[in-house]
Write a structure and sequence with these properties.
The structure is a single chain. The radius of gyration is 19 Å and the shape is globular. The model has no long low-confidence stretch (mean pLDDT 96). It is built from nine helices and six strands. α2 crosses α3, α3 runs parallel beside α4 and α4 runs parallel beside α5. It has a six-stranded parallel beta sheet, sandwiched between helices. It is of the alpha/beta class and 252 residues long. β3, α5 and β4 form a beta-alpha-beta unit. The protein binds farnesyl diphosphate (FPP). The site of farnesyl diphosphate has 21 residues, from α2, α3, β2 and α4.
């Protein structure tokens, strides 16, 4: 096993991904393997969020977007939903002083009105308190799904068109983009999914059109800085062509 310093030396600091998005999967299986309740997996998942945030800041990544709770996750057993909501609200409040010290800005992405009052208040307080921060932007996708987000954007644009505020022919890709929940955040360069599944699960469908995808069997609570460094090294080995030829990209 290579140590973290050796892995970091392999990272080209001039080609750090600007935006990393992560589907954090495997908390439940991590707990099962240890004979613990699923909630223990989620609690350990919070430590992994802390590590990933710290490593992103240290590496100079500008945006880290985490899939913390999907629209579909509302269908989990009520007790697990309650535990997760409590945990997320508690974690954000506990982490706030360190986020501020590290100049990290919280950005909530999703149908936040559905979050229970107590957790919602803590989340909104953290978003407000870090509004001025200019370092890493930590996007927290909560009660989020890409189809929800795209439908909302379409609805808002239709409503503007109905009121005569926008003409249908003026709806371009960039106008549509500016009506998404992620408005102002550049598209992810790298999308990581932990936990061994090879799917996107309704995450950032519009934004990942040209993202590099990285799947790892590592369960989210075990996703440490070494595992993150390996994902960045793998990303840097890819040639991003954006629909062009290899020769075109190399001559740019
Ligand atoms: C997926 O594992 C994980 C979740 C649905 C929740 C992720 C939430 C956290 C890690 C806490 C986030 C905290 C903050 C502060 C953002 P799973 O339960 O689907 O695992 P399984 O596939 O092994 O069952």
């Amino acid at each position: 096993m290579q140590d973290l310093d050796a892995l970091i030396r392999q990272i080209d600091s001039s080609r750090i991904p600007r935006h990393v998005a992560i589907i954090m999967d495997g908390n439940g299986r991590w707990a099962n393997l240890k004979g613990l309740p699923r909630s223990a997996g989620h609690a350990e998942g919070v430590s992994a969020v802390h590590r990933a945030t710290e490593f992103s800041s240290d590496m100079g990544i500008r945006f880290l977007t985490l899939y913390a709770f999907s629209t579909e996750n509302w269908n989990r057993p009520q007790q697990e939903v309650d535990t997760l909501m409590h945990l997320i609200g508690w974690a954000i409040e506990r982490e706030l002083p360190e986020l501020l010290r590290n100049n990290v800005r919280i950005r909530l992405i999703g149908d936040i009105d559905r979050i229970p009052d107590d957790a919602r208040r803590r989340l909104l307080d953290a978003e407000k308190a870090t509004e001025h921060c200019t370092g890493l932007t930590l996007g927290m996708c909560l009660s989020y799904s890409a189809r929800w987000e795209i439908t909302e954007a379409a609805r808002r644009l239709a409503s503007k068109a109905q009121k005569g505020e926008i003409a249908p022919e003026d709806i371009s890709e960039s106008v549509f983009d500016s009506h998404l929940a992620t408005a102002g955040i550049p598209d992810p360069d790298l999308l990581i999914r932990t936990g061994g599944e090879h799917r996107i699960s309704n995450f950032l469908l519009w934004q990942i059109a040209y993202s590099e995808l990285y799947f790892t069997p590592v369960l989210w609570p075990d996703f440490d800085k070494e595992a993150y460094a390996r994902a960045i090294i793998d990303f840097q080995s890819r040639e991003r062509r954006f629909g062009m030829t290899s020769a075109q990209v190399q001559n740019k």
